[in-house]
Write a structure and sequence with these properties.
The protein has 158 residues and is α+β, with helices and mostly antiparallel strands. It has 4 helices and 5 strands; from the N terminus they run H-E-E-E-E-H-E-H-H. The longest helix is centred in the first third of the chain and has 25 residues.
Length: 158
């Protein structure tokens, strides 16, 4: 069982590195892909998905903790990486969260890197609970209970 957990963790690190590299390569000035993506919030499964027609090509997983939206992981089908899909998905999700009036806690390093490149979203980060993926660096939260809840949620996705 340990091998599966280690393999999954290694896969997530590799996935995040590839998505962050894609952000670097494209030099994003605008968060728009070359396609017309359909973005849907699947609240039952805790994810926003990006689809081209019937095919889901990307997702951003989340959970609600303490009235905040905790952004857990971003995944893009390898065939669609380096085409601004992750950036468009993240931008649309952050805009939707802004409209809801909620704050975010960032676990996903891809979301953190996106916000570092697009500071207009910095105001969405919960100052007390920014999360381990938040950029720029913030002080850790004072409430250990919330941090334990977030860590438990992150563990569920491994």
């Amino acid at each position: 069982m340990t091998t599966n957990i280690e393999a999954e963790a290694a896969f997530r690190v590799q996935n995040n590195a590839a998505l962050i590299a894609a952000l670097d390569e494209t030099g994003l000035r605008e968060a728009e892909s070359a396609w017309e993506l359909d973005i849907a919030n699947d609240a039952e499964r805790g994810r926003w998905t990006a689809s081209l027609g019937p095919e889901a090509i990307a997702e951003l997983r989340y959970r609600f903790v303490g009235g905040r939206v905790v952004l857990l992981t971003t995944w893009v089908d390898p065939a669609y990486r380096h085409k601004r899909v992750a950036a468009e998905l993240i931008a649309l999700v952050l805009n939707e969260i802004r409209e809801s009036g909620k704050k975010i806690t960032i676990i996903c390093p891809v979301v953190g890197e996106f916000i570092a490149r697009h500071p207009q979203y910095l105001d969405l980060i919960d100052k007390a609970h920014p999360g381990s993926g938040a950029h720029p660096e913030h002080e850790p939260a004072d409430g250990p209970d919330d941090e334990r809840q977030i860590a438990a949620l992150e563990h569920d996705w491994m």
